[in-house]
Design brief:
Layout lengths: L7 H15 L10 H7 L9 E4 L13 H6 L4 E8 L17 E8 L15 E6 L14 H9 L27 H12 L25 E4 L30 E3 L16 E3 L10 H4 L8 E2 L2 H7 L6 E2 L9 H10 L4 H4 L11 E5 L17 H8 L3 E5 L1
Parallel strand pairs: 1-2, 2-3, 3-4, 5-6, 7-10, 8-9, 10-11
Helix pairs in contact: 1-2, 4-5
Amino acid sequence: MSKYVINKSTLTDIGDAIREKTGKTELIPVPELADEIKSIETSWLPEVITLNGGHYPELFSDSKFSMFLENCPERLNFEAAIDATNMFRFSWELEDLSGLSFYCIGASVIGMFRDCYRLTKLPHITGKLNGIEYLFYGCSHLPSEEINKFFENLTPYTNLVTYDRLNYLFYRVNRARDLTPAFDWLQNYIENSKSKTHFVESPYYNMLGYNYILDKVVNMPVYYANSTANFDPFSLGGGGLSSGSYRASDFMFRTKEDGTPYNANWKNFIVDCAEHGYAPKASNIVDYGIGEDKRVTDATTYEALKNDPDWWTTLPAYSRYNHDSAVRTINSLPDTSAYLANYSNYDNPPINTVEFKGAEGELTDGGAVNTLTEEEIAVAANKGWTVTYI
C-alpha cells in the first residue's frame, strides 16, 4: 500500500467540513473519516425548486409524493400559480406545509386542502385567489390562527370579475376558535366584485359546520346584490351555515362602519341560532381540545367559570348563547325589507326568518332568549325578518 503525507491542516479542513454537515463538534479519528462522510445525508435536489406559471390541480392529492413533501417542503416555490384546485386533497398524513410558498394570480384553490385532516401548518400564500369553496373542508386539526394568517397574507381584492360562493369553506374545521379576521378578508372579497352573481341556493351552504369549539361568529360577511341583480338563496342556517357551533356565544353579521346593517336582496333565508351555545354531548368539546375542568354543570360551576374564555356546557339553561346574544344577532341582521316589498302582492310572499331556542341561557347572566321584548323583536321585523322560537 502506498503511503502519502497529509498536512495536519488538510485533515482539520476535512474534519471541519464533515462537522459542518453533521452538526457534531468532537474531533474525528482518522480511521472514522470515511464512515462519517458516508453518514452525511445528501439529496439530488437543488435547495429550491421554483415552478412558474403553473396549473397544479390534484398534483399532490390522494397522498401522491407525500414522502417528498414531508422531507423536502422547503424546496418548493410556486410562482404565478393559476390553478391549485384539490392540490393536496385527501393527503391525510400531511401535517406541516409551512415551508411551501405560492404566489397566486387569481388562482382557484377550491378544495386545495380538502380532508387533510392532520394538517396544522399551511403554506405561505400571497397574491390573489378566485374560487375558494371547500378550501379547508375536513381540516380537523387546523387551528384558526393558521387560517386567519393565511387570509391576512393575501392581497386585498379590487375590481374582481365575479365572486365565488363560500360553500363548505370551513366545514369540519373542528378546532377553530375565532375566524373573525378571515371573515374580514371575505367581506372585501365580496365588496370589490364588479358583478354580483345570481345564486339559486345559499352562497353560504355549510360554510361553517361542526366547528365544535368556535368561541363566536362575528362579522359574518354579507352577500348582497346590486340594484340590477337578483339574489334568491334558500337557507342560511340549520343545514346551511353554522350547525354544530356548540360553543358559539355570538352570531353576528358584519355591519357598516357606522354600525348600520347592510341592505341585502334576500328572501327565504333562515338564520338558525338554536344550536349555538351548548353541546349535545361532552365529547363534542373534550375531544377537540377543551378539558372537562372547563365544563359548567350547575350554578356553582357557572359562577366559577363564566369569565373563563374556555367554559362550555351541555345544558341549554347555561347556554353561552342567550338573550343578550340574540339581541346582538338581531341588530346585525341585514336589512331585507326593501327587497321583500317587491313581493308584497304575492299570495304567499317570501319571508326571512331567524330561529331561536326559547329557553336557552335562562340561568345565565344574559337571560333566556325568549325574554326578547317587543321592541327588540321589532328591530328584526323592520328589516324584513320574522323571529320564531323552536
